[in-house]
Amino acid sequence: MVEPIRKSTREEREQWLKEAHYNLFQLKADQVYIDCLTDSGTGAMSDRQWAALMMGDEAYAGSRSFYDLKDTINRITGFDFVIPTHQGRAAENVLFSALVHEGDYVPGNSHFDTTKGHIESRKAHAVDCTVDIAKDTQLEAPFKGNVDPEKLDKVLAEHADKTPFIIVTITNNTAGGQPVSMANLKEVRKIADKYGKRVIFDSARFAENAYFIKTREEGYADKSIKEICREMFDLADAMTMSAKKDGIVNMGGFIATRHDDWYEAAKKFCIPFEGYLTYGGMNGRDMAALAVGLDENTEFDNLYTRIHQVEYLAKKLDEYGVPYQRPAGGHAIFIDASRVLTKVPKEEFPAQTLTIELYKEAGIRGCEIGYILADRDPVTRENRFGGLDFVRLAIARRVYTDNHMNVIAAALKNVFDRRDEITRGVKITWEAELMRHFTVQLEPLG
Ligand code: F0G
């Protein structure tokens, strides 16, 4: 599907930003020239997906589209039990309602904010066990999304009796779209087995993860993406899925598992929260399009084209010297704002400030994946400045051309060239208690 985009003037953008309280989520999409806010639900569906959409079966119960989707998921993952949900966080909500309780510990690799939110809102602890090298943005390493086995073992040694499961996010979005190696997934499995624990994959970008295993990990070059996916999921007990990413649909998600006790437990929450078991939160037609999307996006050529576009943008940024989490991630480039706006103190949110500057420069909408998104510590209520402060430029699947990448890179270069003139950031004037980044209101300082 092709859509028109519209240019605007700097004066218009300054006014719109003010009206949006300097939070780019509050902009109208028509006020954006190139939208890199997210790769979630923004991909273009293929001819076969649109055709499948017309064939959707909207039966309330037992829809043919559900069984087609279930068969596809089973073929790719090996999981027998499937619960459709309206998106990824709904899958988390349904499954975690059954599994996560007050005082629990859920170790993982940089839990996504909704995942962390669904754990912390149940008064449980999301313990980040990501490898330390993920914090060194300039280090070139193939699998910076990995779980640190020692950190994981330590959490389990202390809290195994209060650990309902381990969650591994593939690819690791918050650390920069960085992949997790097969060797690491095997290590996690070993540690889980040692303590008798189950493993969930937060699988939003599992196909991109498989692509990186194929292209970067020894022994996988000759395996197909589908073979690699199956080998990955063989190491897990269940998955939560935001189908809006690697399923290439605009809305949808699911839970899948090999365990009937988890399925039975989750079922009880699916019906009141999402809907009857054979549609959960989805239309029949959307399930039909998702089945095709999953099949298409677990083919090498599709992934190669997509990931190369992200790499193309990275190479342009290399030319201009703009620092980002290296190597480029699967779905996005994560600009290391602390290395760009070195004069803006962390208390004034450098990444959010850079996001604002990039929008003012060229109408490009990025997303802060940094100190604002990190929320406050649930106990001390202090801002969490311990992580990385990124501007994420997410690339929609099958939407933009490499020429759009050139425009993004040129705009960033312009901001980068005047980085030393930017000395003040923003302050928060209103925020929600959880997942504040969507609705936070800000004011520029200085
Ligand atoms: N897990 C990961 C790794 C995600 O990136 C997301 C969403 C979710 C779970 C939740 O899925 O949006 O369908 O409810 N990430 C989007 C993003 C919003 O922009 O990265 P959802």
Compute the number of strand runs: 14
**Rg over alpha carbons:** 21 Å
Beta-strand residue percentage: 5-15%
Number of domains: 2
Number of helices: 15
Question: Based on the structure given, which CATH architecture of the largest domain is correct?
Answer: 3-Layer(aba) Sandwich
Described by strand count, sense and barrel closure, the largest sheet is: 5 strands, mixed
User: What's the end-to-end separation, in Å?
Assistant: 43 Å
Nearest-integer average pLDDT: 97
The poorly predicted ranges are none
Description:
By secondary structure, the chain is α/β, with parallel strands linked by helices. It folds into two domains: 10-32 and 300-444, Alpha-Beta Complex (Aspartate Aminotransferase, domain 1), CATH 3.90.1150.10; 47-296, Type I PLP-dependent aspartate aminotransferase-like (Major domain) (Aspartate Aminotransferase, domain 2, 3-Layer(aba) Sandwich), CATH 3.40.640. Helix content is 40%, strand content 13%. The strands form five sheets. A five-stranded mixed β-sheet has the order 2-8-7-6-5, sandwiched between helices. The chain has a three-stranded antiparallel β-sheet with strand order 9-12-11. A two-stranded parallel ribbon has the order 1-10. Helix 5 (113-120) links the parallel strand 3 and strand 4 (125-128). The longest helix is centred in the C-terminal third of the chain and has 21 residues, at 300-320. The structure holds ligand F0G. Ligand F0G binds at residues 38, 40, 87-89, 112, 114-115, 169, 173, 202, 204, 242, 244, 253.
What labels describe this entry?
three-stranded antiparallel β-sheet; five-stranded mixed β-sheet; Aspartate Aminotransferase, domain 1; single chain; 446 residues; alpha/beta; 40% helix; Aspartate Aminotransferase, domain 2; binds ligand F0G; 15 helices
